[in-house]
Sequence to fold (1001 residues):
Amino acid sequence: MPSLKFTYKRLFIISAFILSIIGVIFIYSAGTYWSAIHYEGEIPFYIKQSIYLILALIVFNIVSNMPIFHNEKTWISLYIFSLVLLVLVLIPGIGLERNGSQSWIGIGPLTVQPAELVKITTLMYLSFLLSKVPNGERVVRLQHFLIILIPSALIMLQPDFGSVFILIVSSFILLFIARYPIKLYVAFILLGVAGLIGLIATAPYRLKRIEAFIDPWQDPLGSGFQAVQSLLAIGPAGLLGHGFQQSRQKFLYLPEPQNDFIFSIILEEIGFLGGCLIIGLFCLFIYSGIGLALQATRSFDFFAISSLVAMIGFQAALNIGVVIGLIPVTGVTLPFISYGGTSLMIIWFIVGVIVSISNRTV
Amino acid sequence: MKWISTVSKKRLRIVMYGFILFVIAAIVRLFIVQIIQHDKLTELAKENWDREIPFASERGEIVDRNGEVIVTNKLAPTLYFMPAQNDNIEQAAKQIASVLKVDEKKLYEKMNSKSYLVKLAPEAKNITYEQAVELQGLKIDGLYTGVDYVRHYPYGNLLSRFIGFTGYDTQGLAGIEYQYDKYLTSKDAAIRLFTDAKGNTLPHVDDEWREGHQGATVQLTIDLEVQQVVERELSQAMKKYNAEQALAIAMNPNTGEILALASYPTYDPSNFEKVKPEIYNRNLPVWMTFEPGSTFKIITLAAAIEEGKVDIEKENFYDKGYTIVEDSRLRCWKREGHGQQTFLQVVENSCNPGFIELGQRVGPDKLLQYIKNFGFGEPTGSNIAGEASGILFSKEAFGPVEHATTSFGQGIAVTPIQQVQAVSAAINGGKLYKPYVVSKIVDSETGKIILENQPELKRTVISEQTSEKVRYALESVVANGSGRNAYRDGLRIGGKTGTAQKVENGRYKVGDYIVSFIGFAPSNNPQVVVYVAIDSPKSSVVFGSTIAAPIVGQIIEDIAPIIGLEVNREGQLEKQYRWGDPMTERVPNLVGMKVDEIMKLQYPFHIEMHGTGKVVKSQLPEPDNIIEVDGTIHLYLGD
Fold:
């Protein structure tokens, strides 16, 4: 009889794999028309995504079998490396600008987002430091905040609000799990609210997004456009959806339907029940991830696995929340499913790290 | 710390509960959006997907009683633009602006909007057909020409104050256009294109044709030919007398059908904004309320005869030029009085003291009752927009003086259409018919009648015998009395003049009159009632008899062949000669006579012979017509 840990690991990998396959399938459905119009003559998204998935699985295979990623010290160097990349990306000529933010580093056809990497290294480095705090001693250290704030500040220079948001929230979940005092958390939340207000106040487009969130119909062709178009995709789908390939909103009504709003198209094609199924798969992935964390025997492993799982869970929740109109539009992709090479490889890298850590025999 | 603290595990569980909470919220939200709001969002999504290119349907036509078109539509396309389909909107705006001669910047702003389909209005709304063709030749991407119409008035200003006009979106704003907007309004057809956001056709959705329908045809009781005669006469009078306003009504007294309804000055309904609202908002025959003057005496006369209070041919009345009522001296219009006269002559002379006598004989309560029975004091129910009800004395305020002045048409205010309604009843055998202007409304596509008006008898107000006497008296007014200028040989016109001082701020304005005449023909069997009023004519002699009567005479003469009045002298009262009238004789029948015979007769005419021969074959004018002494008779000879 397989151990509980083995069952969790298997559920973890299988749910991640199924989600990735669903991603490719719906990138085929959602993105084909868009790519035919906007990237005429280029390789369609779903073929690229299939290739990325194969590469991602190779990455996963290597990482999950490399003990180097159990080593806490590896993460210190990787953290510094990712910070260097974050600085490099800001230098014109090295960093590439897309959609108004300079967040890509490109070498030939390969482009990567350092922010994606730094999210992982920050959480891992923090986990390492937190695991070093002796039981019973005060956990709160200024150092922790510096580790979070330095990459956050660098990402804000690009700017990439979505990544900073995910980084900060998942880091704070980690600190919370690592027994940071509850009182401090009340202060954090107040600080966070103040910070959000500050962010909104400094960039008027964010206020517009909030307004559009509260009532997207007041400006359905302007600031409320994406929210409205998303609702117009989801609403008519009903219980079972229009059927695979039968989306209408993918015909250029929803911008980049293979990306941030792919879940709209999924909901449109397979309806309420299909949507629940996808959400269920994410729950399964997170449930088995938490299971793996609880099976860990060292605090580093526990902190690392739970913070990485929390990060993926938070990002998924953020994306789904935006699509169904629970959260203002933030520009975050749906893990495993949205089109994109870097994010798919990074996510499978994370899955690999988690599996690798839980593979450790004491 | 090597071992994981239980606090940390507990904290992880708290995080997990947070996540579960979110999942529940997400599923509830999904349920709301996809199941509960499903229908509403489906409707919105359909709007989002379809691109409608409108095909305007025609607004209903307005036609006269014979189906002649009064108001119709003219093709005037409107342009639509799909910004996503054009790469160089600036250039497109420039091209369109130069063809249409409109502001390029404004057009560009409109064309560069974030909408899928922009209606280029008002810049490119209702352009001409030639402009549309020119623009199509330019082959501008994303530019579509939508079928659209504007109102077209083949008769220009004719009937404008009655018909009204339409606004920017061809919605009725005044007159018939406004009142019957519900029927006249059309529903635009459209092609619904299910496309992607850029306007390309979607692969698995069929386009739809959304059916529209034309507006219904409103058929009026108006006779265009009669209307043209009436308006011609009014416009001449406006010029001749430099009048402020003029109005006229022609009605069939036996049904209440209005044959003509005119107000002057008129305006061009396609440029209504160029005139003051008082012009296009006031349909004078139903709106204007003024003291009727002597035309109102018909009601007093009818009441007195019906009540058996007077035998107009046998009873005499002496007019000394005034009557004292409760210390008030009420004067006759003729200062020295008419002296001894029969009551028929009282009517012919429009003698005020005579009518005061008649009113007193009827009694105040009875007279007021007759006035109300004849339809005064309330709108006629003609269903013409803006109809007023007029002002009568209340029973309490109806003292002897008010009673006396009302008897000859002063101190009260009525509308022209009330007068026409009342006089029609007085001369048609006593039947008060409701005036009406719309005969029917017909679905222009199916031909189905949506609404049809029939003559509506309100009540009988006097007997046939009384009515016959009234007709006789009014015919003699035209033959012998104040209506002589309306006399037309063979048409047996009857009628009554009216001259009323205008009232301003509760006082009579000196030298400012509304002169009127109400006439009908033929007096033995009236087929038409014509009322004309001229407001503030500038003339040395301002009387209904000198200004309005000849107009009514001319109108009846000219419309007689249109409405089928036969020239018939039987029973006609001959016009009495008065000093100043031209001397007239009837034309003798000379056909068949020999030339030398004629030469022997001493006719007071010039005789001109035409052709050769000894016998008269035909003559002009024909026998029995009236000819002025010294006039010429043309004879055409043969063998």
About this structure: Residues 6-36 of chain B form the longest helix (31 residues). Chain B touches chain A through 44 residues (CB under 8 Å).
